[in-house]
Recover the amino acids of this structure.
């Protein structure tokens, strides 16, 4: 029984990894004052570029690289719209989401024949970390995962260090609070924001790649299933702090998994109504977490506001 | 060159081209092809759309028809799109989504010379030109259920599906459950609802929870189950699975025993031939194994691995085709506690 519980926790960690990666990326840009609602589309692009590269090269590492490049490209385009062109961030993000969806369908059809069902024959397998994976329970859960889960876990301290302990992080936070004052104090606001977006592009691209390179072997334009939007709310839940975001992503992922487990394991042959009731669990947990933890915390003051030097 | 000469050459050219064009359209041009239009609410890549699209592409190649489609048509636009196809002279119009049925049901009686086939819904005004079809492939699901009950070692089988209370989905689940109980009335069946039409990550979680509870055969009514059936570290097969709607055997060849497949080509062929001969089968079109609409496609590996089960399943298919096995198909999920509801007293 314990073995099964371990495997369930381990799978939940795997399915939460894209959520975690995307939330960490979003957390960094939002700290710099940019609200990127386009990460749903960016994730999809990451999944798509990863899928086609891995499909043709039969090399999953090239797939990961392609996911990263795809993610950076689309997020930088968003950056061009909102930083260079000073467009409204929410509307630009909507455009980015629609554009990504269109790009994926368009190229999918150009590349693959109509009506076919292309798939990758081999998915990324977990990499057990020597010694650490031998630790009972924790080793099985934490150190027997795919590279994506490791990246997701490592990204938390890295993001925390970046935001709170580096000179760049200080500029980033200053930019997010008040870009005009930061600019007058000599911070290159555009550069700071572009760097944040590139970092987000990397994370979100990898998050997309998780879907088509390690979890499933097909591509579908719905594969991200609104996980990007979920990431945006997790950033709020985690109060713009990577550690909080980590907690939020896990809370959400486990609440969702728990709703499925309770239905299957404990109640046995469940009636339909119980399953519906349990499916609201993640949202109930989120509301409770917000009520307990997040009433006083505030986000970056200039989040979502356009900035121009004049 | 004089202006008058130039003018006469131009006039002559116009006359020649005009006569040529007239001759082409009236004498030389081939007779008009039968024109079929399909309307999809989502992109073609969705399995639900892909099965119809593939059937129509096959019809285009084999029945010499013209085929056009509109995809990503929202419900609010479907009336305009249908009317445009009618104006453009299309003979058979196929609105292929539940959300379109009210419009189709209303428009069909207004155009008695145009044929309609509505994909799922609650149409009533069938008249002589409206067909309602759906993925009534419960017969194939029955075979899958029977195979599941034969190959399970733990006596526990599971289903991963979308929402509770959806009529056409319930028919599939009933088919699967009836098949399993036909083999073993005491079999333990668990249904896991992911409460989403498409969320592979959630389906994967649902499947792994089923496996943890001892289930070793899963009907993947929604996509996302296969990857949970194999231990990624050891490569051990934790459970077998069945694909749904389209042939998904190649996606996970060591896990998927077979697929419950919907083939729309036999129906499309019947409809086109019916429309051409004036014997359009208006009313509800039932997908059957007999006509070839519903199929259970074995993964060749497993057909070899379980030869006895294979021959048993082939026998079942024959019994279903001959009408020896029947069960109630009414869109209501039969409670799992009913021991054996295959072969009830139904007319």
């Amino acid at each position: 029984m314990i073995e099964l519980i371990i495997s369930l926790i381990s799978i939940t960690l795997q399915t939460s990894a894209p959520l975690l990666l995307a939330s960490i990326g979003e957390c960094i840009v939002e700290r710099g004052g940019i609200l990127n609602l386009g990460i749903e589309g960016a994730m999809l692009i990451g999944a798509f570029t990863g899928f086609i590269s891995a499909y043709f090269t039969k090399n999953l590492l090239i797939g990961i690289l392609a996911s990263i490049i795809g993610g950076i490209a689309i997020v930088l385009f968003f950056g061009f719209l909102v930083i260079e062109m000073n467009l409204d961030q929410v509307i630009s993000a909507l455009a980015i989401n629609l554009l990504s969806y269109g790009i994926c369908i368009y190229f999918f059809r150009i590349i693959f024949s109509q009506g076919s069902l292309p798939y990758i024959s081999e998915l990324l397998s977990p990499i057990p970390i020597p010694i650490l994976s031998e630790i009972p329970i924790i080793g099985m859960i934490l150190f027997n995962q795919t590279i994506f889960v490791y990246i997701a876990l490592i990204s938390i301290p890295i993001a925390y260090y970046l935001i709170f302990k580096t000179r760049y992080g200080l500029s980033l936070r200053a930019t997010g609070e008040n870009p005009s004052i930061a600019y007058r104090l000599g911070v290159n606001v555009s550069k700071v924001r572009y760097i944040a977006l590139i970092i987000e592009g990397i994370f979100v691209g990898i998050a997309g790649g998780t879907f088509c390179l390690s979890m499933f072997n097909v591509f579908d334009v719905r594969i991200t299933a609104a996980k990007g939007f979920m990431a945006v709310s997790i950033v709020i839940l985690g109060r713009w702090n990577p550690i909080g975001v980590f907690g939020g992503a896990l809370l959400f992922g486990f609440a969702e998994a728990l709703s499925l487990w309770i239905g299957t394991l404990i109640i046995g042959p469940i009636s339909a109504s119980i399953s519906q009731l349990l499916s609201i669990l993640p949202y109930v947990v989120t509301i409770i977490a917000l009520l307990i933890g997040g009433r006083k915390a505030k986000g970056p003051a200039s989040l979502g506001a356009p900035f121009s030097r004049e | 060159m004089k202006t008058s000469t130039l003018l006469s050459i131009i006039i002559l050219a116009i006359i020649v081209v005009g006569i040529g064009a007239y001759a082409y359209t009236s004498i030389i041009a081939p007779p008009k092809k039968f024109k079929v239009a399909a309307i999809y609410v989502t992109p073609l890549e969705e399995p639900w759309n892909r099965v119809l699209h593939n059937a129509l592409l096959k019809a285009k190649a084999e029945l010499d028809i013209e085929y056009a489609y509109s995809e990503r048509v929202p419900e609010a636009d479907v009336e305009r799109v249908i009317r445009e196809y009618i104006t453009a002279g299309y003979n058979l119009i196929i609105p292929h989504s539940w959300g379109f049925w009210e419009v189709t049901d209303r428009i069909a009686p207004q155009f008695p010379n145009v044929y309609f086939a509505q994909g799922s819904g609650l149409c009533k005004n069938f008249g002589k030109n409206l067909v309602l079809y759906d993925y009534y492939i419960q017969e194939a699901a029955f075979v899958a259920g029977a195979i599941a009950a034969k190959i399970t070692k733990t006596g526990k089988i599971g289903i991963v599906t979308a929402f509770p209370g959806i009529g056409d989905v319930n028919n599939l689940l009933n088919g699967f459950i009836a098949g399993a109980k036909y083999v073993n009335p005491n079999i333990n069946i668990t249904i896991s609802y992911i409460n989403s039409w498409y969320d592979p990550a959630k389906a994967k979680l649902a499947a792994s929870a089923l496996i943890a509870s001892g289930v070793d055969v899963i009907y993947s009514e929604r996509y996302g189950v296969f990857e949970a059936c194999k231990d990624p570290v050891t490569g051990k097969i934790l459970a077998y699975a069945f694909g749904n709607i389209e042939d998904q055997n190649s996606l996970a060849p060591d896990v998927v025993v077979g697929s419950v497949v919907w083939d729309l080509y036999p129906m499309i062929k019947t409809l086109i031939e019916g429309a051409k001969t004036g014997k359009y089968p208006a009313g509800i079109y039932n997908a059957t194994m007999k006509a070839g609409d519903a199929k259970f496609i074995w993964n060749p590996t497993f057909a070899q691995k379980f030869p006895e089960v294979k021959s048993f399943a082939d026998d079942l298919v024959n019994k279903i085709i001959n009408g020896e096995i029947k069960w109630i198909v009414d869109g209501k999920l039969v409670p799992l506690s009913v021991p054996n509801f295959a072969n009830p007293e139904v007319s």
In short: Chain A touches chain B through 47 residues (CB under 8 Å). Chain A has 13 helices and no strands. Chain A has a mean pLDDT of 88. The first helix of chain A runs from residue 2 to 31.
